[in-house]
Amino acid sequence: MKRRNILWYSLLFIAGCTTGTNPKNNSDKLAISSPKKLNFTVTDVAGIEDLQQDYGAFRAVLEEILGIKIDFFPVENPTAAAPALLSGKVDIVFAGPSEYLILNSRAKAIPIIAIRRSNYHSIFVVRADSKIKSLAQLRGKTIAMRKIGSTSGHIAPTKLLIDAGLNPNTDLKIIMLDDQGAKALKKGEVDAWATSFDRYHNILEAEGLLEKDFSIILKGPLLPNDIFVASNLLASSFVEDVRARMFEHQDKLIQSLLTAKANQKYKDGKFISANDSDYNMIREVYQKIGQGSFL
């Protein structure tokens, strides 16, 4: 878990997908303009049971709104959705910001709609008794992050460190601890912990930790949105219709997401237009950590 680059993402992708253009002609003349069935997946949910538990209600509402049968298509890891899109095995994917760049660059996925999370910020946390008050003071220190490629738990914190004048490859040590960063910080095994603001209190509660024992030294700007994308094998007119219907029925769709405990991060969320340029911050980080060719 102490790997400090994201090369493994590339290896996972190459194992399941060849680079280059889609071998199928995806012009609107041959595109699927009115599919009888759609396959849907979520990049960070592995297994049909978890998909059903976390997105069963959403799938049912989307099926009703579109008037088309929708089946789940589970993927083994976040990058596996790209070859699934390329091969036509999946039609619509719900992805995090970092995963969107993979789907966009490798599978030419078409943005449908994004969902804004009201508290989606990266934060840096230290112990309450720590003398560290700024990111500049993290030079030579050890920082716990979530997992490689996580927007709020790796990419965005890395951007904040770079903006503070630190080289994340040489000026400090980063270890990936998933949601165990809070415990490691409490025990003094790390000097700081980077996570997302909308997960922070949930993690402390789950681990039986007290907020008074920690101090947030930085809260970053609002992060790029999670996004629904479509296969480029679908006709642009059909994708536009899906987009319009999702906008029209967004309250019902978002409420269906909130029926699952795992999706409470979308409370007070809102569907907005999906703009590719909103994700340039993530592209910038990949470039600065030497992984630009990945995208």
UniProtKB/TrEMBL annotation:
Among SUPFAM superfamilies, the record links this protein to: Periplasmic binding protein-like II (SSF53850)
Q: Which family does it belong to?
A: Belongs to the phosphate/phosphite/phosphonate binding protein family.
Q: Which residues form a coiled coil?
A: none
Name the PANTHER family on file: ALIPHATIC SULFONATES-BINDING PROTEIN-RELATED, SOLUTE-BINDING PROTEIN FAMILY 3_N-TERMINAL DOMAIN-CONTAINING PROTEIN
Q: What organism does the record attribute this protein to?
A: Calothrix parietina FACHB-288
Question: Is Lipoprotein among the key words of this record?
Answer: no
Instruction: Keywords in alphabetical order, please.
Output: Signal
What domain of life is recorded for the organism?
Bacteria
CDD domains documented for this protein: PBP2_PhnD_like (cd01071)
Under InterPro entries, the record lists: PhnD
Q: By what name is this protein known?
A: Phosphate/phosphite/phosphonate ABC transporter substrate-binding protein
Q: Which Pfam families match?
A: Phosphonate-bd
